[in-house]
Design goal:
Subcellular location: Membrane
Keywords: Glycoprotein, Hydrolase, Membrane, Transmembrane, Transmembrane helix
Main location: membrane
Shape: elongated
CATH class of the largest domain: Alpha Beta
Organism: Rhynochetos jubatus
Strand content: 5-15%
CATH architecture of the largest domain: Alpha-Beta Barrel
Radius of gyration: 29 Å
Largest sheet: 9 strands, mixed
Oligomer: single chain
Number of helices: 20
Number of domains: 2
Membrane topology: Multi-pass membrane protein
CATH superfamily of the largest domain: Phosphatidylinositol (PI) phosphodiesterase
Length: 515
Amino acid sequence: MADPPGCCRPCATCLLCLYSCQWITAKKEKRKGLRTTKCDCSWFLFLFCVFLFTLVWLYFAIIILNDFHNFNEFIFRQRKLWLDWSLILLIATAVLITYSAVLLVLALCLQLCGQPLKLHWLHKTLLILTALVVAAAFTGLGIKWAEEWRSARVSLQATGPFLHIGIVGGMTLLAWPLASFIYRTRNTGLKVFLLLVYSAVMIALYLAPLGINSPCIMEENQLPPKPALVGHRGAPMLAPENTLMSLYKAVGCDVQVFETDVMVSADGIPFLMHDEELTRTTNVQAVFPERAALNCTAFNWTDLQQLDAGSWFLERRPFPTVQSLSEDDRDQATIQRIPSLAQALEAAKQSNISIMFDLRPENHSDYQSFVNATLEVIFESGIPPQQVLWLPDGFREQVKQQAPGIQQVYGRKRLPNEKEPLLHVNLPYQDMSSEEIRQYRQDNISVNLYVVNQPWLFSVLWCSGVSSVTTNACQVLKEMKHPIWLLPSSTYLMIWIVVDCASFLAILWAFFLLK
């Protein structure tokens, strides 16, 4: 059979050599009578599956970037090693997807050129390794970070319409090599099978928008107000977390609430600290090396004030934004100390923002005394009680009685037939569907979801009608004046019809042109 139009012999030879790792010219290949066997077809199918598998992992890798700082913190607590693992994840994923994509393109081009698909054993080995690596990544994700499966479900609300267009486009392009293969093969049963499978997939894709449910498919006048911003430990991308500098940076980002964590020192002073150990966010290993592994509640306030709570931020660079800090900000970071709750309350009062905190560790034997010490500091600060949002569940009834003006925030959904209705809930963004958010909004229940860093996720929650979000990236979300995308139903319907019709016509053209 002659080479198809537009497929020159040198190009076919080059493609064959890259795919087969053998310098065999197209003319020699014909003399040798090489052809694509059933085994070769099986390896092509395996290549296609590996490409799709890796492509799905790439999607997951992009989605989990929103939560990757939590993974970095987890690794540090386990190994005492700080590294931005997201960079390694993206580089490794890019290498795997590029390799499998290049091989797939080579195979499709060879098919269009009428050349045999003789995959070299080295490529076969690397493909198997690629599949094993991606499978291991998915397995690890399921074991150690299962909530990210729910993150993927949320992400489909943002990407569903665009994924549909992309997949329809990809399957439409696949019609060309498929048509070429069908017209070349003499196996009638295989022809019928491939046509049936391809037709079934395309029909399913054409009807897929019926099942796409995105909150951002709405009219402009139906868009809820922009969610308020809650600074997660302040503005941790701009300043060391849980410091006064971080609080003031958060104020500059127009946050309405400063979210933090409170511990109580050995001499009864509440202070701001997230980790139970001081090693990640202070220089305790240099100042008190023999006590570095102790719980931070074992230190008295005098000892805690000797620690540097800011230099680690410049040294470890927990976020890429650290590199762009000004010299003044860098100097300010190096003089940060662990703030007391009293200092934080005073700063919040002066800045006219609320403060929301968790009191930890809740399993401590002296937890009730922690609650009492915290309430005493709140009373002495003079901050209006409505500016304090109380998260801890322990001794909540006691807090309600002693400080009825403090706003109670619950880390759970409302229960059926609950006597006292919830007014504020604080949950992971994976735990509430768009329908639940809308229902809570109708019932005047304030919903805060955490931790929301990526604009795509903020856009979905904005369209859903969430009241506020806790974020590390307040400086990014502050600048968003509108969701990333918003489509009226009529516009989306028109796009759906145009894309499906264009795809159908392109497929017909491919089959008739190559006949």
